[in-house]
Write a structure and sequence with these properties.
The chain contains four helices and two strands; from the N terminus they run H-H-H-E-E-H. The chain is of the alpha+beta class.
């Protein structure tokens, strides 16, 4: 069962996007280690526009929860880069989030596909 609350202070579309960011970020770094610019680029490619001010606190929270770790790597084109890696706990969490997401999408699609607007 899903409880979705609409906050009057924010656009509901923005709320939905925030809710799936953790899933998307974990999915990105599950395929390969990535630094913040990589993550932002992949999100943008998927039409999820995220600014650094949103991403960095989320990456810190994921690290603090033990879902990710990071390492510093020298860069040929500037300062060292912080590469984020998913942990075993992060992979477990990602699989749970994927299952929850797919269940939610299925439930919402079922409602949307069977609904029709009222006349008058």
């Amino acid at each position: 069962m899903y409880y979705i609350c609409r906050m009057n202070t924010e656009n509901p579309n923005a709320q939905m996007r925030k809710g799936v960011l953790e899933l998307c970020i974990l999915a990105i770094i599950a395929t390969q280690d990535a630094y913040a610019s990589d993550i932002i680029m992949k999100l943008k490619e998927a039409r999820l526009i995220v600014v650094e001010g949103t991403l960095y606190p989320l990456l810190t929270r994921l690290k603090n929860e033990g879902l990710t770790v990071y390492r510093w790597e020298e860069s040929k084109s500037g300062p060292p880069r912080k590469y984020h890696q998913i942990t075993d706990l992060g992979m477990k969490n990602l699989e749970e989030l994927k299952t929850d997401w797919l269940d939610l999408v299925e439930s919402v699609e079922k409602i949307i596909k069977t609904s029709s607007p009222r006349n008058g």
